[in-house]
Design a protein that fits this description.
By secondary structure, this protein is mainly beta. The chain contains two helices and seven strands; from the N terminus they run αββαβββββ. Helix content is about 10%, strand content about 35%. A five-stranded mixed β-sheet has the order 1-2-3-5-4, with no helix packed on it. The chain has a two-stranded antiparallel sheet with strand order 6-7.
Length: about 120
């Protein structure tokens, strides 16, 4: 996150669950957890910064989705019935990647992810 003001601003819009990233080793966001589990409408989302640091089998653990962001590269991928989602970065442009975010619609029997390019 880097700047805790980002979280405060987001909290004005909706509830926020945040995890630390590689720039949060020190400073005001260093207290954020490395991983988090969130359940919404019966679907369980596992959040971690770098998908390559995943040390469990999401399908065996019963997770519906793995949300990560380290690469800043937007991605929607399905493996063994689990959604792997990287929303990209909604902040300043990183490298030559788009500025983006992701939306996930939770249906009765499915997750419907969508990447949204902001610029």
């Amino acid at each position: 996150m880097g700047d805790p003001q980002i979280l405060d601003t987001l909290r004005e819009l909706a509830p926020v669950t945040a995890i630390s990233g590689n720039i949060d080793a020190h400073g005001p966001c260093s207290h954020l957890p490395a991983t988090e589990v969130v359940t919404l409408h019966g679907r369980t989302f596992y959040m971690l910064h770098d998908r390559h640091a995943l040390d469990l089998d999401p399908a065996a653990a019963g997770f519906s989705a793995v949300i990560s962001g380290h690469s800043h590269r937007p991605l929607i991928e399905w493996r063994k019935g689990v959604l792997y989602l990287n929303p990209g970065s909604a902040g300043p442009r990183r490298f030559s990647l788009p500025i983006s975010l992701a939306l996930v619609t939770i249906g009765a029997d499915s997750l419907q992810p969508q990447l949204v390019n902001l610029l």
